[in-house]
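S.,

As promised, the zinc ion run. Input:
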Amino acid sequence: MQHAEEFLEDDLVAVLTTQPLDRCLDYRAPEGGCRTGDLVEVPLGPRKVPGVVWGPGLGGFDLSKARRIGRRIDVPAMTPSMVQFLTRAADYTLTPLSSMLRLALRAPGLGDPPSMSRLYRRGLTEPSRMTDARSRVLDALDAFDGVAVTLKELSDAAGVSGPVIKGLVNQGAVDEIEAPRDTPFPALDPSLPGLPLAEDQIAAAEALRRAVTAGTYGTTLLQGVTGSGKTEVYMEAVAAALAAGRQVLVLLPEIALTGEFLKRVEARFGARPAEWHSGVTMTERRRCWKMVGRGEASLVVGARSALFLPFQDLGLIVVDEEHDTSYKQEDGVLYNARDMAVLRASICGAHVVLASATPSLESWANAEAGKYTRLILRSRFGTANLPQMGAIDMRAETLPSMTWLSPTLRRAVSDRMQRGEQALLFINRRGYAPVTLCRACGEQIGCTQCDARMVEHRFQKRLVCHQCGESCPMPEACPSCQVAGKLAAVGPGVERLAEEAAAAFPEARVAVLSSDLYGSSRALKEQIEAIAAGGADIIIGTQLVAKGHNFPLLTLVGVIDADLGLQGADLRAAERTFQLMRQVAGRAGRAERPGQALLQTFQPEHGVIRAILSGEEEDFWRAEAAERQALGMPPYGRLAGVILSGPDVAQVFDLGNAMAQQAGPLRAIGAEVYGPAPAPIARVRGRHRVRLLVKAARTVPLQAALAQWAGQFKLTGGVRMSIDIDPQSFL
Ligand code: ADP
Ligand code: ZN
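Predicted complex:
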């Protein structure tokens, strides 16, 4: 589809629907005709399903049977660049186009008639009595420049409660009107001044501004330690794109980070941007989708799926914390939002900023190869210094059994507390203990549906499977031998560490940050804000805390088990450990007070641990890159994972074996096939899992060969096959 084609009423057109079919369906154009890209509703069997007019119909059947498109949905047509993006993303990830379209139409109630809501704007009369709160409301309305806003937007902007506004409505100083609910987002003002930047920030901001103003595709890796002011720098790129009248998307890896970011946008551009993630209400999501499509949301802050919003003219995509593994979607459509951001930008002539303190090896290698521009911020902003890094050699420490805080770490924590500073104890394990062992029979309690151990969550008094989410009340007796009172918790999780810290520091306020302990993202956000404001002395946290939160009073980070990530045979074990440890350590000393990071380890001489301690990041990446290159592994070679799963283990293996034997299409491009082998997690939700791994050179047409190979096999007996291009997880 190059340019929009017009069809007259009753012309035969091809419609791509969101139904799991691998082709378009033919329909007759509706009354008034239609054009390619139009969103429509079509009858399919007894149902009505959404779709997009994809091109002229193919015909080849009894045309008198062709049904008519139900109606056009009143939203802007899909742009040719979006069509191209979906098509290429589908080809890359070997996903049916219909699944891609489902991602692109994932707003609730798109076809519904516009619903109405109450909006507020300046009325004609002056209030009888002016109070401070009232004048703030009127000032806020003036600042909105005649645009009517919701009660919430107005009360947020003015910092007053609803009744103050209602009082003004009664006096006629504020008008309450009924308007379509989906209203434009307040305009952002890129001409407002930003913070005065430091010298290296100025240079980086200038480079980004030039890149964005050029209006062509390019990618910049913005690298700088946590706290070096990367966000402040890419805000200048955002300003440049807004000033050029183009739209901007900022992707964040974690919903809990959006709160702080929204405030910074508001401080910089005078209003809040649109939000798109799972914590946003259905109505707000629909509003976001529609306004993005009409060009009336100029900046969207969101999670990875925001990439599929119908931007009209996208000029900049920022992927913050670009190394974060949550950018890879691991179920449904398997895509990496970082890579898809680059794809989308290259199609629509946008610039991409990948920001990170610890880039992925992929992005580092692309920068080394000159495909990406690299900008580096070398020091922390202002007086903040990088934390001093140190190892605690656990072989030389004496700890009572069932405890995990070494005497050295305990001393460091009490030092900080005496100075009124905060300490963070990091352990990347949710729950109380990873293993529950029966001391009578030796059984380790496992999930009945998966090949995984049940994890005790003591706060909830339950055992939980971290694979499938299955849970049960904590039993009294061993489920295997029925002996009561012999179950023992083995190993530490975040809850157990909190218990130990509370016992060791009875006077301390201990806060636990683990994603499963908060009922909602709002509750988590509030806890994070409370901690940042000084509401805790000791923070016990999982991976969640590594993701860019700003705790000004935090000066000590203690890593309980720095060796944890090094144990797996995972391709990226070293890279992940390096990134995670550097990120966590980076939480310390973000304000004026100097920070320290201490790593408890049994192998302080391990190459990765040494690289973390020395901070010789370039050396680490070069060594890691050389190793991957020698093995032909990503990013120097390419991988695709094939996961077969089914209720019957023999059947799954038979298919795996057949695939390994009939690998002609892969051999033809010089690719190697490994497996089949039982997946490390060999059973999930009662389905047996078998993996094959395909390894190929960078330059060969891997997807076409994979499609041809996989197409040879019929899936029977409930067996499923999923192909994971560029796998991140090997479980
Ligand atoms: P990063 O994104 O690299 O972690 P941030 O942009 O969040 O760094 O900056 C870290 C802290 O320093 C923030 O609190 C930010 O407001 C502050 N900061 C950064 N640059 C400036 C500046 N030029 N002037 C004042 N404060 C700044
Ligand atoms: Zn399970």
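Residues 199-377 form a domain with the Rossmann fold fold (CATH 3.40.50.300). Residues 195-198, 201, 224, 226-232, 381, 550 surround adenosine-5'-diphosphate (ligand 1) (CB under 6 Å).

- D.
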